[in-house]
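User: C-alpha cells for NUDIX domain-containing protein, please.
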Amino acid sequence: MKPTIDKVAWIHVVEGRLLGARSKGKEVYYIPGGKREPGETDRETLIREIEEELSVKIKPETISSIGTFEAQAHGKSEGVMVRMACYTADFEGELRPASEIEELLWLGYHDKNRVSPVSQIIFDQLHEMKLLF
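Assistant: Done. Predicted C-alpha cells:
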C-alpha cells in the first residue's frame, strides 16, 4: 500500500480566482489547509488550519464538501501520495498570512503550473465547474 498524506483544504473562490498560499522559503503555491491531527475530523482540521494559516475563523455551519482529490505528493519520493479533502465555507475576519505562510495570492486557471500536482487536479475540476477562470 502506498503511503498517503491526509490533508484538508479550503476552497475559497472570488470572482473566478482561488485563494492560494505560499509557505516561507517555498516557490509553489498551495490551497490553504493542512494535515489532520490525531482524532480530528475534517471539519475540525479545516477550522484549525485556516485560523492558524490565514487568521480568519471558518463558520462551521457553512462548511460544504467539494470533493476529495489524490495525486503524487509534491516534493516527496515517488509513490508517496497526497489525498486532499476539499471544502468551501464562509469566514469571519480579515485574510492575512500567519504561521508558516509568507504570501497569499489570488490564482486563476492560468496559474495552474504554479501549484502542486493535487492542486492542479483541483484547478481542472473548478475550471470545469465554471468557478475558476
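User: Anything notable?

Assistant: The radius of gyration is 14 Å.
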